[in-house]
Specification:
Largest sheet: 6 strands, mixed
Order of helices and strands: EEEEEEEEEHHHEHEHEEEEEE
Helix content: 10-25%
Number of strands: 17
Distance between the termini: 41 Å
Shape: elongated
Number of domains: 2
Number of helices: 5
Length: 331
């Protein structure tokens, strides 16, 4: 049976809905891992994700939808607070690249004019990240000894042009005279912040132009600047990746401690200065910037998107889909 693909017929990305101010919980400082990041104040947030599908013009069969949902991290706990799942919907989950949690929605048959939904409201406890107590212990990992999970964060990603000659030259130069790995990464961070002007730019064909454009034009939005920091880090042999939160993204870089254990540390290349720490308390949506979606192994995505597909047959209707991603005040 042939398949018909419905990428995003009707999509709602409610990333701009801000929560009302919620006072942080009492500070509880503790180590996540010995020698690594520490956790500070926390805040409870509400987040809703899912999909609503309507069969228009006839019945729809074999519907499969993919929806990224919040995942747990050392600095983020996630619990389901409420759910709305129609009887004809089957829900399961899978991980992509070990960092993105995908909700799979399967509907064998949706009768003409009917609506089906699978929406979940999550209670998220997000904690501030504090810098490690001792930054002198860390070293840059040997690329030849990294496992696949970490070595993936040394290669190129969409808009993160690691192989560019100017970026490679900067990777050799920046921080070369510093005595510790931490100071070397901070030299890269400071260079990007001091040499690329942060502007709230919305481009005609998308929200990102990438690392090379930011370096050449000396300006960019938060995605461009984050791409540049990550690209220079990777070219210098330092694993780095993107962290996505509503209306923003920042970076994480990876160093090893004296025992050879890997630790991820956040930094904010664009906006308020934050290196090795993250005071911001927005929910983490995804981590990473190179994803091969399960529905098309030939595609590479910078940010994992929603997707819907269904079976094509005589007299079939059209599934009209509304994807939901929004912060909520009640959960």
């Amino acid at each position: 049976m042939r398949r018909c693909k419905t990428s995003v017929l009707t999509a709602v990305y409610c990333l701009g809905t801000l929560l009302a101010a919620v006072p942080p919980a009492a500070a509880q400082f503790r180590d996540v891992e010995p020698g690594g990041i520490r956790l500070g104040e926390s805040r409870e947030l509400g987040y809703r994700a899912g999909v609503v599908i309507q069969a228009v013009g006839g019945a729809c069969k074999g519907i499969v939808g993919y929806v990224p949902v919040p995942n747990e991290w050392p600095e983020q706990d996630v619990q389901i607070a409420a759910e709305e799942v129609s009887p004809e919907v089957k829900v399961s989950y899978e991980m992509v690249e070990g960092t993105v949690k995908l909700m799979l929605v399967r509907i064998p048959l949706l009768e003409a004019g009917k609506e089906a939904k699978a929406t979940f409201t999550y209670k998220i406890r997000r904690r501030q990240i504090l810098p490690p107590a001792d930054t002198t212990q860390f070293v840059i990992p040997d690329p030849k000894k990294l496992d696949r999970r970490l070595s993936a964060y040394l290669g190129k990603s969409p808009f993160i042009e690691v192989g560019d000659r100017k970026i490679a030259a900067l990777a050799k130069q920046l921080g070369a005279d510093r005595s510790t790995a931490w100071q070397r990464v901070e030299a890269i961070y400071d260079y990007v912040r001091e040499n690329v002007e942060h502007k709230k730019i919305v481009y005609r064909r998308g929200t990102c132009r990438g690392a090379v454009a930011a370096l050449n034009e000396r300006q960019g939005n938060h995605e461009d600047i984050t791409c540049l920091f990550i690209a220079i880090c990777r070219a210098a042999g330092i694993p780095a990746r993107t962290v996505w939160v509503p209306e923003h993204c920042y970076a994480e870089f990876c160093l090893l401690d004296t025992q050879g254990k890997a630790h991820w540390f956040p930094c904010n290349p664009a906006g308020a200065r934050a290196f090795g720490e993250m005071p911001e308390l927005k929910p983490i949506l995804q981590k990473g910037d190179r994803f091969v979606p399960p529905w098309d192994r030939r595609e590479v995505q910078r940010y994992m998107t929603e997707y819907l597909t269904g079976a094509q047959f005589p007299g079939a209707g059209q599934p009209v889909v509304r994807f939901i991603r929004e912060q909520v005040e009640q959960f």
